[in-house]
Amino acid sequence: MAKTEVYQIRLDSEEKKLAFAVFRQLGLTPAQAIRMFFRQVVLTQSIPFQIENKTVMQQSLLHHPVRDASPASVENEENHHDIFTELDQILNSEQ
Fold it and tell me: What is the CATH number of the domain that holds 21?
């Protein structure tokens, strides 16, 4: 049998209550849900859901404001970096 460890975390009371209710609806114990989360992290080598850094996104939008979809705007947009490529580069450079 694999060696196990105990790890404690602090949770907001209301958030814990709501999350535990969802676990019950899914037929999971909180421990099972946390183990599933950790297993997905290991299997995918990533967080198993999208995480957004709103500060980075807002700063990036300041440098590349959203344009309208007119033909001239679309053509001009093709000459700029894709915002998602830029965000990906920012996020990867911090690792």
Answer: 1.10.1220.10
